[in-house]
């Protein structure tokens, strides 16, 4: 469904953002890190209200991405639920509890 072109990257970003929003993720932002990172092109960062909420957002996004034919490279942090990363290759979703998001400030780091 999604292939590695700018238009499809934008569609994938919109798809992931929409799926995170389905689960009431808060403060969703998208960062284009194509010129700053060799591992990914887009980072999506959002906040979950609890460990369970963070893990549920990750599960929902991963499940829907797989159903849409998006290759999922991995998920890390689900057990702890404080900061979960869903790796979709050119796009990475970071779901964090507020405390972790404030502490690590990924937006400032990658902006």
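^ structure tokens above, recovered residues below v
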């Amino acid at each position: 469904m999604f292939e590695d072109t700018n238009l499809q990257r934008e569609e994938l970003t919109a798809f992931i953002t929409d799926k995170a929003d389905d689960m009431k993720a808060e403060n969703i932002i998208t960062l284009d890190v194509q010129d700053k990172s060799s591992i990914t092109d887009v980072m999506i960062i959002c906040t979950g209200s609890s460990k369970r909420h963070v893990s549920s957002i990750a599960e929902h996004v991963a499940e829907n991405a797989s159903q849409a034919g998006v290759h999922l490279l991995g998920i890390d942090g689900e057990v702890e639920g404080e900061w979960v990363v869903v790796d979709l290759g050119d796009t990475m979703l970071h779901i964090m509890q507020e405390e972790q998001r404030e502490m690590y400030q990924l937006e400032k780091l990658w902006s």
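The chain has four helices and five strands.
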